[in-house]
Amino acid sequence: MAVLTAIAIGTMVAGAALRAKAAHDEGKAAERAGQAQQTVAESAAALTDYNAQVADLKAKDALERGAEEESRFRASVRDMVGKQRTGFAGANIDVGFGSAADVQADTAYLGELDARTIRVNAMREAWGFQVEGVDLRERARITRMEGDEALKSGKARKGAAYWNMAGDLVGAGGSLLLQQYGMRQTSSGGGGPVVDGRYSGMPSAGGPNHT
């Protein structure tokens, strides 16, 4: 009977050891997976941040190009008015009176409208890039949050796996197995095992240990 009991205990401890090893590997794998997901998320977020910076540069470029185009157009309008005045003067027409003055005024007015249209179009183009930049930065922020959550989830799954491992080992009475997996029981016997050198917080049979 003693031999059979010893065999049964040995079988139970061996089974606990196998389950503990599987739980240990599962916990490590979960943590590595979380770290890998966070790394991927950070890389994606960094690329999105870069694209946001590119959008900022495009917005700045749109405004600068618009300002240059507006300036050139205004210069061309002034040149056109000047040529009109020269033509009227060459025809002995008073450039400041009557139809000659009206033609110059119309040219200047229409030119001003076109110049302002150029400015507004540049501002609209820049605004589109600015909105794109804001959207990209928000995406980067969300991606980083997802990466952080993946890391936290991996660590939580690792902790849960280690708790399961601790329960199997304690249930099998495997104090040596606890030590093998970086765990030990408290000397008082009232608390749970210590995982990786830290008290796991597993409640004792008498209730929670709040110390």
Describe the 3D structure.
The protein is mainly alpha-helical. It has three helices and three strands, in the order H-H-H-E-E-E. The chain has helices spanning 2-90, 98-171, 175-180, and strands spanning 183-185, 193-195, 198-199. A three-stranded antiparallel beta sheet has the order 1-2-3. Strand 1 (183-185) and strand 2 (193-195) form a beta hairpin. The longest helix has 89 residues, at 2-90. The chain is rod-shaped. Mean pLDDT is 77; it is low at 1-6, 174-179 and 185-211.
Task: Name the assembly state.
Answer: single chain
Low-confidence stretches: 1-6, 174-179, 185-211
Q: What is the chain-wise order of helices and strands?
A: HHHEEE
What is the CATH architecture descriptor?
Orthogonal Bundle
Bulk shape: rod-shaped
Structural class: mainly alpha
Rg estimate, integer Å: 39 Å
β-sheet strand percentage: under 5%
CATH topology group: Helix Hairpins
For the biggest sheet, the summary is: 3 strands, antiparallel
End-to-end C-alpha gap = 42 Å
Q: List the total number of helices.
A: 3
Q: Report mean pLDDT, rounded to a whole number.
A: 77
Q: What's the total number of strands?
A: 3
CATH C-level class is: Mainly Alpha
Helix content: over 70%
What strand order characterises the main sheet?
1-2-3
Number of domains: 1
